[in-house]
Amino acid sequence: MSVQKVLDTIKEKGIEWVDFRFTDIGGKSHHLSVPAVEVEAETFETGVAFDGSSITGFRGIEESDMVMMPDTDSAFVDPFTAHPTLVLLCDIYTPDGVRYDRDPRSIAVKAEEYLKTTGLGTDAYFAPESEFFIFDDVRYESGMNKSFYEVDSEEAAWNTGRKEEGGNLAFKTGVKGGYFPVAPTDTQQDIRSEMCRLLQEAGLRIERHHHEVATAGQGEINFRFSTLTKTADNLQKYKYIVQNVARQYGKVATFMPKPLFGDNGSGMHVHQSIFNDGNPLFYEKGAYANLSQMAIYYIGGILHHAPSLIALTNPSTNSFKRLVPGYEAPVNLVFSKGNRSAAVRIPIAAVTPKGCRIEFRTPDSTANPYLAFAAMLLAGLDGIKNKIDPTALGYGPLDKNIYELSDEEKKEIRSVPGSLEEALDALEANHSFLTESGVFTEDFIANFIELKRAEAKAVAIRVHPHEYSLYFGV
């Protein structure tokens, strides 16, 4: 979309406010609204100023001036505002016109630019499957003398015996029983359909939606793949619309990986492939899973760098409550065709040459999509450039249910890090595949590790309620 098209849209749709948004290092969106009458062609050349010192992990107060530069192709009309508002996603620049090296979206853009310079391909395509829960009530507190959380859902397994005004209407979703029953067990068909309608209006191509495996309102909406930065933009729109539609229905949506104990968590399986001027490069008919040698090396890069990569694809302490065996969690660093217990799966059902892709199943939606997608691409490209053969390194293929293997067989399989701290240690020790290209800087990696270690420490030093069950009577 051209600048003139954006200005025409403002007039045609009676837009009153233009909302300039960017994403911080942790993946949260921030915004600043400008009266539409003040937005001119010059705005897209000069950008919009803001205080970077108030954003965690950005700049100090002595160098706080920063500039948002809007991307006209990201424009969409906000469906939730009473006053007509047009949203524009932005890259961050310093006042002297230099792209800010801690801006996640700029890192994604640089990753795409780097791919072109390698001569390996022209476009990297990504498609995330981002799961979420829709709850009816969420309460939590963490203080000096108390700590608790409690969530509730009208379709939760624990509510089969609850007395409600007007009676309990039954049809609750059992533990691991949510994939994917019809109504009345699935109470959220209309909510997801409304989410999809607004996502389509925002420019996303919706492929399907359904209830997911867990009890208590777990769902998933799949949208069409696109190029790296565009897909990250779409995921930010996706989370915004999902959370606000839930709120309109008097409910709350969360992308937290493991909000419930004892049932499946929410992952973000990421499908990815490389094309060259419209030609798919991951397909080779008759080879293992119809994968080209380039795709195999790409998988090698993902699995070889997975311990450090996971610091960016699963960057929360809660991520590692999901990454435990037994809940379809892909903790095993192997690849396989069609096998959902492997970290890397190659879809084989109804796949065309252009649809041939690899699926990294470990990530979750606490990841900043701009950082996670860029890091995955760089890991894969490193595998291609250095011909990292995953089979030679013991990463498979393994076309068996890993959870049914003997203990001796399981010993041969490497696993993901067991905690955020372990993943950060791995990132600290191995990140040259991210920085050699100039896509990530040493400063960014050090800053990211510092921010995430602070989060890990904040959780580690707090008393856990279950410790009272274990130790109070000692």
Summarize the structure.
By secondary structure, this protein is an alpha+beta fold. It is built from 14 helices and 18 strands. The protein folds into two domains: 3-100, Roll (Ubiquitin-like (UB roll)); 123-471, Glutamine synthetase/guanido kinase, catalytic domain (Creatine Kinase, Chain A, domain 2, 2-Layer Sandwich), CATH 3.30.590.
Structure description:
The protein is of the alpha+beta class. It folds into 2 domains: 3-100, Glutamine synthetase, N-terminal domain (Ubiquitin-like (UB roll), Roll); 123-471, Glutamine synthetase/guanido kinase, catalytic domain (Creatine Kinase, Chain A, domain 2, 2-Layer Sandwich). Helices cover 31% and strands 22% of the residues. It contains 14 helices and 18 strands. The strands form 3 sheets. Strands 7, 10, 11, 12, 13, 14, 15, 16, 17 and 18 form a 10-stranded mixed β-sheet that branches. Strands 1, 2, 3, 4, 5 and 6 form a 6-stranded mixed β-sheet that branches. It starts with a helix and ends with a helix. The relative contact order is 0.12. The model has no long low-confidence stretch (mean pLDDT 94). Its EC number is 6.3.1.2.
